[in-house]
Specification:
Blueprint lengths: L21 E5 L4 H5 L12 H20 L8 E4 L3 H13 L8 E2 L16 H4 L4 H9 L12 H12 L6 E5 L1 H12 L17 E4 L2 E4 L1
Parallel strand pairs: 1-4, 2-3, 2-4
Antiparallel strand pairs: 1-5, 5-6
Helix pairs in contact: 2-3, 6-7
């Protein structure tokens, strides 16, 4: 018999930070992104589309900083340590005319892990994992995949890191990280956060209390 949990009432995340300037870029596309596979912390490289997105985001970011009279040397550049984020950072910085390797890695910025589900699509899992898929649909915020991590757990990890950010920064990380980071910066509800759209060809900017896409 299929067990079904009703959707939980949404909670609201506390606003943890009001940054002077925080810029977020998601890594470019991988083949697993294109195939709808749960990628998590598996180290899947950028594909050709993703490399182009990374270069385009570098051009967008340079144009934004130029228009705002912001010197990139005043910013801290920080990346998740996974290969697709490092490649995105280096392609982006090269497109900006900056030294490719002048950034630091932050382990806390790794993607949410899907545990045993990594490498699969939901369609792949539909027969054997029907109960868990229904539980995930009912409570995407709190659901923990087998040997994986929930969005709630990810928010605790990112929230701990976010409190340490004390200078204008450019972050290259992952879709799940963006979702919980935006939730924590803007005090969003926990039902909406896991469903936020995260294009791979956009630059996301928080400046004071304002949010914009570039």
């Amino acid at each position: 018999m299929t067990s079904f949990q009703p959707a939980k009432e949404p909670g609201v995340l506390p606003k943890l930070h009001d940054p002077e300037l925080l810029i977020f870029i998601r890594h470019g596309q991988t083949d697993w992104n294109a195939e709808g596979r749960m990628q998590g912390q598996r180290d899947i490289p950028l594909n050709q589309v993703g490399e182009g997105q990374a270069v385009g985001n570098g051009e967008r970011l340079k144009a934004f900083l130029d228009a705002q009279n912001i010197d990139p040397a005043e910013l801290e550049f920080v990346s998740s340590p996974l290969g697709r984020t490092r490649a995105t950072m280096e392609l982006m910085r090269h497109a900006m005319g900056l030294e490719k390797a002048s950034y630091r890695l932050e382990d806390q910025l790794k993607e949410i892990t899907f545990g045993d589900w990594e490498g699969f699509t939901l369609e792949d899992l539909a027969d054997e994992e029907q109960d868990r898929i229904l539980q995930r649909r009912a409570d995407k915020w709190g659901f923990v995949p087998p040997n994986g991590e929930s969005y709630k757990m990810l928010a605790e990890r990112i929230g701990t890191w976010l409190k340490t950010v004390n200078r204008p920064s450019v972050i290259v990380s992952h879709g799940g990280v963006y979702r919980v980071m935006r939730g924590l910066l803007e005090g969003l509800d926990t039902v909406s956060v896991p469903r936020l759209d995260v294009p791979q060809d956009k630059v996301f900017v928080w400046r004071g209390s304002r949010f914009l896409e570039v």
